[in-house]
Structures are given as C-alpha cells and as structure tokens.
Amino acid sequence: MIHSNNHKAQKSLGVLILAAGEGTRMESSIPKVLHHVGGRPMIFYTLRLANAVKPLAIGVVVGYEAERVKTSVQGLAKDCQIARPISFILQKKALGSGNAVLEAMPFLKKFKTVVVLCGDTPLLTYESIYGLFQSHEEQKGQVTLLTARLANPKGYGRIVRSPLGEVQRIVEESVGTAKELAINEINSGAYCFEVEALMSGLKEIGAKGPKKEHFLTDVLELIRARGGKVNAYVSQVPEEVLGVNSRIQLSTAERIMNRRLLERLMLSGVTVVDPNSTHIDADVEIGQDSVIYPGTILRGKTKIGKMCRIGPYTHIYEAQIGNECVVRMSYLDTCRVLEKSEIGPFSNIRPESVIGPRAKVGNFTEVKASRIGFGSKVNHLSYIGDCEIHEDVNIGAGTITCNYDGKAKHKTTISAKAFVGSNVNLIAPVKIGRGAKIAAGSTVTEDVPDEALAIARARQVIKQ
Asked: Are 158 and 275 found together in one domain?
C-alpha cells in the first residue's frame, strides 16, 4: 500500500522528479520549475506530493541552473517536512526526458518501483497519484501512466488504445495522424514503473529529432513489444494534468490553483464574497466565519483569525491577524494585528509593527516598526515610526514621529492615557509621560512628565 496508518516509508518505492528543463518558452532567466504558482515555486507542489506517498527516497533531476534549483529545493524540502536528504541527479546535456531518467540509473536501481513526476505540473493531486500507484499494484503491469481526457488536447501526446482498451503507444502531436490527433486522452507525464523494466527499456531507446533527444514515452513501446503490460489510470480531475511551459499556461495554473484554495476555505467556513477578484497564496490560513471582500490579495504565510472582515481592496503579506479584526482598503506587510483591532481605510502597516488589541489605525496613516497598545487610536493622516504607544492613547490627525536624524533611527515612547493633539511633531528620542497632553501644533523635543501639558509653539501674533 502507498498509504498506511503508521506512515512508514515504502521500502520498495522511490520517487523521481524531473526538473532539469530551462523552459525556453517562458522567456525567462529563472528556471521553469522555480516560477511561482500560489506563492510557491511550482516544484514545491511536486515535492509535497512526492513526500505524501511516503517513498524510501526522493530524487530530483537538475540541469539548467542546477545549483539554483538545488538550493531552492533544499529549502522547500524543509517546508514539506521531507525527513531524508533529497538525491540530486545532474543531467549534463538537455537530451530529453528519457536521457534525464537514464542519468538517474544509480538512484533508480535501489527500488522495485518508482513514481516519475514532472516539476512543472503543480496541479497534480494526491488522490490521483495514490490512485495511479494503487492501480499499478493491482494490475501488476510494468508501467502505469496517468492520463486525462481534455476537451482541447492540443499540445499533448495522445494515448492510442487497442479495440480492447489496452494502451498501445503515445503519439506526440507533431507526428500524429488526423485520426490520432482527434483522440482526447492525453499523457500527463506522471508514471509508475517497475524499475527493472524501466532500466532495461532506457538502455535501448534511440535518439530522435534534430536535437537527438531520448523520450521516456518510447520506453512504453519497448516494454509492450517485449510482452510487458502497459496500463493507464485516468484522472478524475482533467485540469490537474496541465503542465506549464509558457507564461500563458502559468496564468492558467495560477487561476486553477487560486480557485481550489478559495473553495477549500469556503468549505471550512470562510465567506469569500467574490472569488473571481480574490487572490490567496497556498500558505494562507483563515479562521471560521471571517469574510473576505472583493479585490483582496492575501500572500505568503498570512494567518487570519475567526470572525474577521478583510477588504475590499486590501493587500496583506506575511501578516498575523487576530480574531474579530477589520482591515479595509489597506496594505499590511509582515506585521501583527491583535484581536478586535481596526485598520484602514488606506493604512500602510509596515514590517515589525504590532497593532492592538482593540486598537485603531485609520485612513492615510503609516506605521513602521512600532507597537500600538490596547485601545489606542491613530485615526488619520499620521506617520508612526520606531514608536512604543501604550494603552488608551489618542494620536491626533497629522501627528508624526520624527525618528530619523539623517544617520540613525531613534525611538519615541508614549505612555498610557496620553493625549497627543493634531499636527504634532515628536522629535525622537523622546518620551511622553502617562496621562500627559500635547497641545496641537507642537514640536516636542524634550521628554514630557506624567500628567503634564506640553505646549511647544510660538504665541500667536496678529499684526495690522
């Protein structure tokens, strides 16, 4: 079995991921498998899938920008909680999928069975790979391939079957006849091989085309010609087999991934008012009974609590939002908003800021590397930088902390229950005492004692 209650590794099973391609149609200096879908490099999803089937080991074939891909994969492996080190196999020349697997011979020979996956198919589901392996075990063939029936099969190799439904061969689109091209069952690029048959076939496949490439699909014909059994497992979710070879296909994968993620949230008790205008990354978490309004973008490892109201037109990156918070038409980056706090509209909460609980940051206010305490309010048109604001403080409109002297940043501390009037400049470093009041229009350069009133402005003079 591929899946068991104790999650033990399958001693006879390995997984090989093909990730050597340059992806020339992407028109990019970035290796294809490192382009992002759902906020993660495409290969992240393949690694997570590979780990889910509990193999004894995972191998990754690298080629173009090999070191860059290896470094990324090693980091992603930690996120996928892959316990064993990943084996990297270098494909020295881009000579096709068959050659890539051939280079992995020393890795492959350790196993009885191997699942081969492509690093550019981020939409594949665990259910299908589990079904592929189960089907392979039950039918006892030499190879089982994952196929799908597409309404528009253009660009994919077609599955040619016998009248009895047996897989005879895979025909690439460039060489298919009109009858063959009318077939809508296509090859996904995911396979389950008996390693002995795979290794034997790889040694015999010839080079094709002007680039003298070796194609993995040719192994299937050799296996069948020797009397081996080639089976197919048909995906129940055809869109999952879509590969990414261009920016257009990347956007298609992004759209499908986003829909899946939003559906998962909605099924868990989150209201998404308009899924078509809402975008989230794969690592986003949202609590029950929260509402996400149109035009909202949630990125990175953002975590939102229960009964929140987020949006419309809000962008949140790597932030932690507590329960019962409201964030409207604002930008939040790597910050924390504690329970029952309110942000926006048009607020900019920058990294290392902590807001709340029960605090309010209002329109056209920027907060950077600051703490705004329990019940405190910065309602409008303010800049709060490198500042510690304690509980129940009121900051008037147009107030700014002057935290930078041209060489270094300095801190402002505003103690509990202080009242800072409108259009005040606080020249850091400075401390405002508990219950102190700052008169509107003041420029404060010295500490203000507890319960004191500070007026730092010239007396009005009227001249006729």
From this structure: no
Structural contact between residues 65 and 162, judged by C-beta atoms closer than 8 angstroms:
no
pLDDT digits (tens, 9 = 90+) for 143-188: 999 999 999 998 888 999 988 888 988 988 878 899 999 999 999 9
Q: Are residues 197 and 256 in the same domain?
A: no
Q: Is 266 buried (19+), middle (13-18) or exposed (0-12) by CB count in 10 A?
A: middle
CATH number at residue 363: 2.160.10.10
Tens of pLDDT along 318-342? 999 999 999 999 999 999 999 999 9
How many alpha carbons lie under 13 Å from residue 201 in its C-beta half-sphere? 26
333 falls within a domain: yes
What total of structural domains would you count in the chain? Answer: 2
Annotated catalytic sites, by residue? 380
Over the chain, what is the mean pLDDT?
94
CB-based contacts of 307, cutoff 8 Å, min separation 6: 287, 288, 289, 290, 323, 324
CA angle 295, 301, 307 (to 5 degrees): 60
Residue 346 DSSP label? S
- The set of long-range contacts for 218-225, using a CB threshold of 8 Å and a minimum separation of 24, is 218/98, 219/98, 219/143, 219/193, 220/143, 220/145, 220/167, 220/169, 220/170, 221/169, 223/142, 223/143, 223/197, 224/167, 224/168, 224/169
**Same domain as 294, residue 220:** no
What is the DSSP code (8-state) at residue 14?
E
Q: Residue 59: give the domain boundaries.
A: 10-241
Q: What are phi and psi of 367, to 5 degrees?
A: -125, 130
Cβ partners under 8 Å of residue 123, min gap 6: 45, 239, 240, 241, 242, 253, 256, 257
Boundary residue ending a domain (192, 212, 241): 241
The two tokens of residue 444 are: 């404060």
End residue of a domain, out of 241, 270, 296 = 241
Note whether residue 4 is domain-resident.
no
- Residues 331-374 have pLDDT tens digits of 999 999 999 999 999 999 999 999 999 999 999 999 999 999 99
Which candidate, 48, 85, 105, 400, places its Cα nearest to that of 257? 48
In a domain, 190, yes or no: yes
Evaluate whether residue 377 is within a structural domain: yes
Whole-angstrom Cα distance, residue 403 to residue 406?
9
How far from the centroid of its chain's Cα atoms is residue 379's Cα? 34
- Same domain, residue pair 297 and 334: yes
- Pick the closest to residue 140 from 228, 223, 216 (CA basis): 228
Q: Is the peptide bond before 106 cis (omega within 30 degrees of 0)?
A: no
Q: Which residues of 389-427 are buried (b: 16+ CB within 10 A; e: fewer)?
A: bbebbbbbbbbbbbbeeeeeeebbbbbbbbbbbbbbbbb
